[in-house]
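Backbones bend. Our protein:
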Amino acid sequence: MDQPLLPVPDDGAVLPVPEGALLLLPDDALLSILAHLSPKDLLSCRLVAPRLRELCLRPELWRSTILKYGGPDMGVLADALGVVPCLGEIVPCGLSVDLDALAQLASFVRETTSVIGRLVFLVNSPTDAAHATTILEKVSSLGGLKRLWLSVGNTPSDAVTPLFQAICSVSSLCELELVCASSPPATVSWNDLRNPSLTRFCYASSSALVDSFPQALLTAHGTTLEEVELSGTEDLPVALLKAMPRLHSVACSPVDSLSQFLPAPTLDTVFLSAPREDAFPRGALDLLREASQLKFVSFHFPTESPAAPLEALVRSRSARCLETLWLYSASAFLDLVAAALPRFPSLHTLYLEDPPSDSFLRAVSPASAPRLATLDVPPPVSCPHSWLHGPAVVDVLQRNPRLHLRFDRCPGIPDDCPCCWCRWGCHAELRLRPASLDSPFSAHRRRAGCPADCFQVAVAPCPSCARSAA
């Protein structure tokens, strides 16, 4: 019989672990442990032992790592780019970074051999554009760059032309997101139209027209694009979009030309932003009503004829297969939403931009929404912990054994929260671990089919509350 690697006492006492015992573990066990370390600690562990020096640089430990530039972690980023084989993403530390952040990043990247999967650039000056171009050209030359997010402020067109030309030269790019304060340069072109690669393209501009650059991109990658988002434009290039054989997701303004998509045999996802006019255009209503296999729909309720888009969806050929519905500006129309639920028997996820009323929660039942598993809501102004213990919330969770409630970007619970539940110490982990507030809350213990972080909310006072009350 094999001897144990570590001594096991007969009396169950805990013995000190011998120095170096960790290195007795096999590689896969050590890698599982190392996966829990921060990038900074991983780099430090390389100095502990020759075996760790190699293990800490395994690609599986770095392939999903996100490192930030323009903040306090620039040293870690510089060290990582000098030794690691790959990185998941390099992103700015916030919406604004140090003036020389891209310059520093360019100096780190110049000698790197790390394959980087995603880059995020904030370009607000000609100098930023020059450094971003340098970084992009070097990273793309190493291969492996699949995703790029670029925000360009009011920067002269001639300053960003080399950057956009560099974008056109990236081979095998899968996702491109552009946010432009002004029109992109019209002089750039895609180098090789024979090898399209983009599957997702998002474009936001202050212009109401789709500029020549995105037009050229849609043409060049039309055979591979699956998801297209065009924000802020009313001049939708429907002819280009309709000709894409793999396109299944469109996000855009609700415009009249959307009816040209019909019969839309591949379209299953539609995100419609807030209408510029008070009413929903007829063409957008036609799309909701006539598309045959929509599974994900998102729209804003218009101020004029607010029920029109919901009624179009209720009467649509997609009503029975709709799985996800996101509703914005719906606070005054929750009764309409509640009445519509039985018409969507496959609905799995419902997102509400506005807090649900008690009457709406009472309308949610296994009869009205038999497959509803997730209700995404904004966090209440009061304590979210207290709201979870409210009678209407407890009731809806008890009556719907499949249902999970999830907060949309909950800010957390203050240490001095005055609500009785927090004073009693109920569910203290919600305050001690704020990330718990992002969990899906239910009235049941986690089981098969539940999200991995399913959090059971007690439907009766938890033990600490009961002790306090006693």
Notes: The longest helix spans residues 126-141.
